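thought: fold this chain, then report.
action: predict
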Amino acid sequence: MEKNISRRRFLKNSAATSVSLIIGLNSKGILATNKTNTVINPFVRMDQEGFVTVIAKHFENGQGISTGLATLLAEEMDADWEKVKVEFAPANAEQYKHTFWGYQATGNSESIANSFMQYRAAGAMAKDLMIRAASKKWGVKTDEIDVQNGIMRVGTKKGYFGEFVTDAVNLTPSKNPKLKTPDQFKLIGNQDLSRKDNEAKTDGSAIYGMDVKVPGMVYASVVRSPRFGGTLKSFDVSKAKRVPGFIEAKVFPDKRGVIVYAKNTWSAFQTKKALLTKWDFSNAESRSTSDMVSDCQKLAENPEFEPRPFKTDDDNQSVKDLNHLEAEFFFPFLAHSPMEPLNCIIEPTKNGVRFYDGCQNPSGVQWASSYILGLQPQQIEVKTIYAGGSFGRRNSPAVKDLYQAEAAIAFALLGKKTPVKLVWDREDDIRGGYYRPMAFHKTKIGLDANGKILRWDHRIATKSISKGTDFEKFLVHNGVDHFSVEGCVDTLYQLPNMSVGLSDFKSSIPVLWWRGVGHTHTAYAMESLLDMVAQRTGKDPIELRLDLLNSNDLKQQRMANVLKISRRRSGWNKGNKRGFAAHYSYKTFVAVVADVSATGKQVHIDKLHITVDCGVPVNPDVIRAQMEGGAGYGLGALLRNEITFAKGQVEQSNFDNYLPLRISDMPEIDVEIVMSNETPSGVGEPSVPPTGPAVANAIFAVTGKRILELPMTQSGFQFV
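observation:
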């Protein structure tokens, strides 16, 4: 069925060529091919014109993964970069699963690490088939043929990939194609390689969910309880019926809210405002933020769980003889606030339904929708398109809570025959929940007379992201949700007698992964505390950290190297009024030096020096952009962002009171990428955690004010 696309023209299906070569990788690592597009795990398609289409199994929400996957495949294929295109994979977990997880989804900054060998092998196989096809046609040995930029040469003979597609599809693929060594890379690590999504996103031709229309489509939006946990008692639609474009209003089966249907987005939003509702708040959240903070403080006094129990050391001095450093940290709830609010389309097909969506979790969409609609997962198609940001919001550990599940319910309640476009407005995004959890840290560090750390007691109270969800059995062990304590319980620093306690904050407020997840608060606390130790003992902050790293451990070795490069690159000297922080997350090592200036409580962030070791730097330009973007995202939350509650109701609603980062807030950023041959690791999230404490430590160095409560405006600072 042909689609009518608003504002933009949808990309044509590149499969419409006369002959295509499809290369894939099955679960055993054996590459396969045939003419019929029915192979297992197809990763690359090539037409007779020589265009190479890379099938990306991970979605693109601005992190650059489409370029990264294309780079891996094109590198081994020696394809012409200008003839490489990217297409997002359909929903098919058997073919396109995340090999670490076993289902099809994107997240945890693992896309490149997950796909590094898989896409390289697919590219190598494609190249091998083309060479063998040329060898047979030209009557020469395969090792005589040189390949560069999609052109094969031997002697006076020359041919383009596209000329040999028909012959190549008749060959049996090799099981073990030869891969390049790092010294042979031309695209991997290339500083000047252009991103595949740049042009489309610049000229407006890129297609997002908001851009898609299908014939006969209606628009749906949801009226939600003003308090989390509330259920609908009744509603009056009489006033809403007078809104031009109004179609219908229906109640969710679980009474979580009312779905309104209209002829366009504006009508849907106006209908929501006109709908009169009454709610049952008997099981709803009723506390204000101050009450929640007080409850977290009490929880931290007596931890429920000990993910890192204290171990007595008889050689230590008694507790009373130690010089104690104590601090409490508070971190508010945070919204994700992507540029494009949540939306998707669901339409009926001959065999089931089809979604159009910037989809982060196709498998989750299939699971949830199949249950709601009474279909088999394979009957649910997902057409993945660009997502205008995510930061974790387009996924959920409980598939029933996916926004696509809302769309499926809206579709079902309307009779399963009419295409429905679900659209959240900005107020839904800010007030609709699924926040970064609020967190409280209570810490106590024991130092001997020489300033050496001898004890470290760290207690955290926060709401679990995983408990009560489909992920609980995988991510909760002995009562501990790893997301609540990551970055603290598994710190790389060798801290003697470190204990970590955890208590679960209970609330109906829904929480979710947020860019950096638990690291966003644990890194802030850990790196602020180390700065406090350095200040108390008169030690240089970087030297203090180096003293806590073991040179015999590879991870700690790499972290130490990042610290030293950061010190040298930034021109750090002991006694400078600058801030420093470093953190290990998503298998990536990041150090940040922050320079700020201040006049009284007016602060300006002048410059950030970021050093990153993420293994093999596949796309340096993408890595640099992600370091910069992650720092900016972290600063947005650090300076002014918070979700607060007044008697159970969210006080923020839009960007007028949930303040985004201003262009004047964004500092100059210098990024140093450490060259490495280690396995690639994440870059989308790791710069977020250390940026906050680096800036906070810099503000302390300049003003003498230690910031323990976020956002920083709570400490009276203004950012100019």
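thought: worth noting. Residues 111-138 form the longest helix (28 residues).
final: tokens above.
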